[in-house]
């Protein structure tokens, strides 16, 4: 089975996982290490994801997607991350870019922009972060001024994934600098718009073939109908999109953790010390058991958050819990698998070395682990709640 031409009433998660894993093992994994070394953007694989109907899994069919539950999207993300975390980062950033249009766009905007993004191989991006506005988005300095010929945007964004490669970037700017968070507005920025320029790809520790850029906006003029949602509501739109995207990051973490667990078991089965495979030592067995438990818990938590999202519940707490649990567990698993490898794991040619570099960003982007804990604490159920 392939995911192409899939329908909501015929595809199971198990079938989807089998299909995506076969595709990923055949076409994504073989070049992952080379792409890491060269930091080469895998444009051809973006089109292949579209060919497999994977670019809009949870997006309604009326906008070109498959209309499947978010759990199905998590399966695809996990399997892609298992093969290449950098491609998974590009992929999850694409879904993050889609969210504001899906959530806040008019029917005309969704009909115009979503089908090419969900089924045609077009790529989306999300431009919120600035040099002086990371977690504190109310401090953003990029401005948008309303004039007769359109909206004029000026400023800069940084650490923006997919920015130069994207066909459509959702960019956030303040339309009322005196209003802070309530002055932020979202805009759709098509590829090739005059006044937009990019830095060289930023040199990163990991996910190296998933480029990030500083984006410069020099009096960029956008038509009036490129404003997404309502003026001044872009901050809420951005945070809602990020909350939903955190579940995707959890799936990405689970995919990396799954591959690390596989690598650890394979190495422990072939590495011999004192006349036996090291997997036979209790110390290694304890670690492998811990990896299994952590991965199952992380997957269950991500699925729970996905269900909260699909049921229309308050996703903020659930998404933060899923991201925190999965990304912290992923780092722990990868770190300890490197420990199992000993010095061999520290070598550049080792797969676990690449996984170690790739997984570190997960505890930072889409909200740091500390931001997740603050969000969880600030949204805890009351003592009378049955949400536990």
UniProtKB/TrEMBL annotation:
Residues 125-220 form the Acyl-CoA oxidase/dehydrogenase middle domain. Residues 14-120 form the Acyl-CoA dehydrogenase/oxidase N-terminal domain. Transmembrane segments: none annotated. InterPro entries: Acyl-CoA_DH_CS, Acyl-CoA_Oxase/DH_mid-dom, Acyl-CoA_Oxase/DH_mid-dom_sf, AcylCo_DH-like_C, AcylCo_DH/oxidase_C, AcylCoA_DH/ox_N, AcylCoA_DH/ox_N_sf, AcylCoA_DH/oxidase_NM_dom_sf. Keywords: Branched-chain amino acid catabolism, FAD, Flavoprotein, Oxidoreductase. Its cofactor is FAD. One of its GO terms (biological process) is branched-chain amino acid catabolic process. Residues 232-377 form the Acyl-CoA dehydrogenase/oxidase C-terminal domain. The keyword Flavoprotein applies. Pathway: Amino-acid degradation; L-valine degradation. One of its GO terms (molecular function) is acyl-CoA dehydrogenase activity. Belongs to the acyl-CoA dehydrogenase family. This is Acyl-CoA dehydrogenase. It comes from Gordonia jinhuaensis.
């Amino acid at each position: 089975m392939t995911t192409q031409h899939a329908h909501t009433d015929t595809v199971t998660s198990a079938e989807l996982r089998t299909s995506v894993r076969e595709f990923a093992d055949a076409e994504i994994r073989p070049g992952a290490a080379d792409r890491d070394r060269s930091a080469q953007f895998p444009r051809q694989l973006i089109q292949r994801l579209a060919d497999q109907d994977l670019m809009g899994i949870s997006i309604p069919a009326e906008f070109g997607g498959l209309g499947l539950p978010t759990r199905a999207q998590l399966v695809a993300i996990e399997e892609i991350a298992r093969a290449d975390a950098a491609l998974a980062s590009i992929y999850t950033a694409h879904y993050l870019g889609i969210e504001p249009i899906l959530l806040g766009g008019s029917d005309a905007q969704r009909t115009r922009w979503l089908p090419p993004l969900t089924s045609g191989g077009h790529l989306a991006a999300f431009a919120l972060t600035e040099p002086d506005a990371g977690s504190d988005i109310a401090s953003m300095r990029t401005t948008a001024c309303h004039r007769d010929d359109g909206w004029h945007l000026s400023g800069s964004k940084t650490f923006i994934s997919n920015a130069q490669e994207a066909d459509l970037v959702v960019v956030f700017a303040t339309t009322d600098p005196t209003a802070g968070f309530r002055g932020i507005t979202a805009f759709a920025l098509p590829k090739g718009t005059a006044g937009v320029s990019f830095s060289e790809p930023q040199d990163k520790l990991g996910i190296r073939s998933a480029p990030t850029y500083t984006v410069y906006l020099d009096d960029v003029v956008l038509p009036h109908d490129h404003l997404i949602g309502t003026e001044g509501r872009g901050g809420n739109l951005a945070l809602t999109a990020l909350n939903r995207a955190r579940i995707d990051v959890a799936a990405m973490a689970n995919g990396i953790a799954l591959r690390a667990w596989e690598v650890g078991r394979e190495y422990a089965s072939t590495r011999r010390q004192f006349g036996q495979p090291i997997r036979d030592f209790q110390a290694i067995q304890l670690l492998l058991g811990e990896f299994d438990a952590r991965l199952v818990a992380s997957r269950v938590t991500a699925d729970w958050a996905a269900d909260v999202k699909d049921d229309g519940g308050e996703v903020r707490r659930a998404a933060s819990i899923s991201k925190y649990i999965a990304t912290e567990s992923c780092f722990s698993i990868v770190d300890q698998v490197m420990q199992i490898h000993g010095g061999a794991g520290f070598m550049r040619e080792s797969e676990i070395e690449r996984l170690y570099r790739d997984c570190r960003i997960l505890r930072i982007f889409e909200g740091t682990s500390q931001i997740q804990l603050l969000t969880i604490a600030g949204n805890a159920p009351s003592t009378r709640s049955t949400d536990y």
